[in-house]
Amino acid sequence: MAESIRNLSPNWIHQNPENPRLIFRENELQELEASIDLQGILVPLTVYESSPNKYVILDGERRWRCAHRLGLRQVPVIVQPKPTRMQNIMMMFAIHNARKDWDPLPTAMKLQQLEELFYLKEKRNPTEAELAQVSSMPRGEVRRLKLVIALPKKYKDLLLKEGDLPRSDQRVTVDHVLEAVRGSAALRKRELIDGKQESRLISTIISKYQSGVIKNTVEPRLLAKIARAVDRSEVTRPKVHRLIEKLMSDPQYSIERAFKDSVARIDIEHGLEQQVLRLTEKLEAEAIAGSEIGKSLQLALKQLNLTIRRLTSM
Description:
Layout: E1 5-8, E2 13-14, H1 26-39, E3 45-51, E4 54-59, H2 61-70, E5 75-80, H3 85-96, H4 104-122, H5 128-135, H6 139-149, H7 153-163, H8 174-189, H9 195-211, H10 221-231, H11 237-249, H12 255-260, H13 264-289, H14 295-312
């Protein structure tokens, strides 16, 4: 049977307690309100009837909020059959999976509930692939949101507070926090910092995102490079300890600066060394095969030989 559009009073319609979207920014609501005031609601809300004359939103809470603010007497809706709680969450994910305006933290929290409902139904935890299927999201996004779920409460509270701000005013996002956590964990894994220092370092990195000292979202990845340099004995543990302490105590000292002060040059040389080893392996294979090389490659190799001689004679 084809879906039909009905007109209902906004007072008969209610918020969905399973909606993963918890953040409604005032400036975005004002823009939508102005559009509805001018053109009306162009896309009907999707609802289900929970009891006589009481409907619950599956899709369209922002439109419903604006209708109330504008004092509209009726709004267009499409009524769906009443779902189970698990179907409700799955349906909302499916409706919204192509949208980009859901904030990661509330979405992660709702994904966790969906995972719990799956367990109650199937008596086992869902695999990553199954969770991606029931939430209508790519596996990579499910993996990312599970990392968000694992964040300490204080960072979740911070992200919810930031989420209330217009996007242009936000200084800390989920990706900032995840990068800070990953970078600090790389140092903890090598026992370059302890648990207390790890927590302090994460807070320091987030503060430096907020102050603008750290401008690049992925800058904390340089901490993992520093940690790997310690594994290769290219930099000493005491030196890294001093750098991390300075990073945590000096408000203007960035991770990029710490990287330049420690292993930047070593990292460049390590990368070149790996490329040289791979090139040498390929050239030796060509030599063993006895293949005839073209003139263009011959010229390139001669130039490479000159460059190597110049570098090794310095």
